[in-house]
Design brief:
Layout: H1 8-16, H2 23-51, E1 57-60, E2 67-72, E3 83-90, E4 94-101, E5 112-116, H3 125-132, E6 135-137, E7 144-146, E8 156-160, E9 170-171, H4 178-195, E10 204-210, H5 212-227, H6 234-238, E11 248-256, H7 260-263, H8 267-273, H9 282-305, H10 308-327, H11 349-357, H12 360-366, H13 378-386, H14 398-403, E12 407-413, H15 421-430, H16 436-441, E13 445-448, E14 454-460, E15 466-471, H17 478-481, H18 483-494
Parallel strand pairs: 5-8, 5-10, 10-11, 11-12, 12-15
Antiparallel strand pairs: 1-2, 2-3, 3-4, 4-8, 4-9, 6-7, 13-14, 14-15
Pfam families: Peptidase_S10
GO biological process, one term: proteolysis
EC number: 3.4.16.-
């Protein structure tokens, strides 16, 4: 167990060294420092309680007195690389699980990529063990298999279970909307980079899929604003000198839900005119198209007010009219080519992942503390829906990020229905930013593998600032269906060679 420091001492001494400060200001600072000290003692007591069962290292940050991280260094999945796993603890009753893997190539130089699954309510360990992590789980769920196409081939990887009570995360309360969830992610990154400073200056990328099309733009905004000193609370302003700029280079969103107003328009077309086979008859698709204007008006109202009274009705009606007809066919909503199988989210492998992550030896090795791991928590999904988060326009976070030079890749497997490539491509073309006309005027070009075979289509600005990539033969989870193409995509994107 390692305590980094008593964080209040340096702050108090700094205040007293400036005689021009007024008495009231010093008093306020002392009160803040006493609050910090109490927080450290509280976390220390909690930490000792945990340490009775297992040994952890623990770290704090002066700008976030209610946060701490405790961690271990396991060797599961890919023993050849350094790993860190543990929890971000918040106010003693919120605990977010994370798992970090160093790059297999040059960990001191390669970038660091954060991965987030969506839902809302689904564990990012789905991405780890089913899609792009250093290993996959075997069918029996009692062992792992090394993944040669892992995204840590040329990038360190960081998986985070958020929001609260997703995957191995646990606690009371928690966020019910994307904005609050992003604040926890930013605090976690500050603590992580403060404790593991060897990674703090690396290029940093945020990636994910599905409802992460909400999460990622907002996380990008949170990082970008704080990097520019536009802090959201007084505490962060007071301790701004302790906040390290996060070297955010890009965002990658796969089959995401980012702009519902545009994307919902394409459900009928994807159901009847996708590249593989019609799922619905033409009459049903025509009926979906006829229902869409009413859906669009509700989403527009949500975009205008962003309050739950406008946004919840939009989600209820639009999902009923545009998604439910497809679901009633029994076809996999994440892949128009297949029926929905008995496993979690229509994939049998997710049952194997759950079996593995519920093993006592696995939980002990990585420090996981939940009684039962589940790939998705539908209560979280329900709470975000009830809060009206589903239909909110997080697409509006994208233009300011592009204008500030944050590169953004929108990619989509062309067999996914629920966040299909048609709708995703459409919103990239409609995005209101300074280079909209330029992007719309570009041509889609063939995206080929090393053998010269076409594996998709890409449209990208010449400088690689904004790109849309269609991946052939992949459903909702591109790295699962096309692992080699997904790794090629990542490597080309990180080296700004996708355009």
């Amino acid at each position: 167990m390692l305590f980094k420091s008593i964080v209040c001492s340096a702050f108090v001494l700094t205040a007293l060294a400036k005689p021009e400060l007024q008495f009231q200001k010093i008093t306020n600072q002392l009160e803040n420092s006493w609050h910090d000290f109490q927080g450290v003692l509280r976390k220390g007591a909690n930490e000792i309680e945990h340490a009775a069962a297992e040994t952890y290292l623990t770290a704090f940050h002066p700008a976030f007195p209610e946060y701490a991280i405790r961690y271990k260094q396991p060797s599961l999945c890919d023993p050849s690389v350094n790993q860190i796993s543990g929890y971000l603890d918040v106010d003693d009753n919120k605990h977010f699980f994370f798992w970090f893997f160093e790059s297999r190539n040059k960990p001191k130089e390669d970038p660091l990529t954060l991965w987030l699954n969506g839902g809302p309510g689904c564990s990012s360990l789905t991405g780890l063990f089913m899609e792009l992590g250093p290993c996959t789980v075997n069918k029996a769920g009692d062992n792992t298999i090394l993944n040669p196409q892992s995204w840590n081939s040329n990038s360190s990887l960081l998986f985070l279970d958020q929001p609260l009570n997703v995957g191995y995360s646990y606690g009371d309360g928690g966020a019910t909307n994307t904005i609050d969830a992003a604040k926890h992610v930013y605090a976690f990154l500050q603590l992580f980079f403060n404790e593991f400073s060897q990674y703090a200056d690396l290029d940093f990328h945020v990636s994910g899929e599905s409802y992460a099309g909400h999460y990622i733009p907002r996380i990008g905004t949170e990082i970008n604003k704080n990097n520019k000193g536009k802090f959201q609370n007084l505490r962060m302003s007071q301790f701004s000198d302790t906040l390290k700029p996060i070297n955010l280079k890009s965002l990658l969103i796969g089959n995401g839900l980012t702009d519902p107003l545009t994307q919902y328009k394409y459900y009928a077309k994807m159901a009847c005119e996708n590249p593989y086979k019609p799922v619905l008859d033409k009459a049903t698709c025509r009926n979906m198209e006829a229902q869409f204007p009413a859906c669009a008006r509700l989403i527009e109202n949500c975009y205008k007010s962003q309050n739950v009274f406008a946004c919840l009705p939009a989600a209820m009606k639009c999902n009923k009219d545009q998604v439910q007809p497809y679901q009633q066919t029994g076809t996999n909503p994440y892949d128009v080519r297949d029926p929905c199988k008995s496993g979690g989210m229509c994939y049998e492998i997710l049952d194997s992942v759950q079996t593995y992550l519920n093993r006592d030896d696995v939980k002990k090795a990585i420090g996981a503390r939940v009684e039962k791991y589940e790939s998705c928590n539908m209560q979280i999904n329900f709470r975000f829906n009830l809060a009206g988060d589903w239909m909110r326009p997080y697409v509006r976070e994208v233009p300011p990020l592009l204008e500030d030079g944050i590169r953004i890749l929108i990619y989509a497997g062309d067999a996914d229905f629920v966040c299909n490539y048609m709708g995703n491509k459409a919103w990239t073309l409609e995005l209101p930013w300074s280079r909209k006309d330029e992007f719309r005027g570009l041509k889609d070009i063939d995206w080929v593998n090393d053998d010269g075979q076409k594996i998709g289509e890409v449209r990208s600005t010449k400088d690689g600032l904004f790109s849309f990539l269609r991946v052939n033969g992949a459903g909702h989870m591109v790295p699962y269906d096309q692992p080699e193409a997904a790794l090629q995509m990542l490597n080309q994107w990180l080296s700004n060679a996708l355009h």
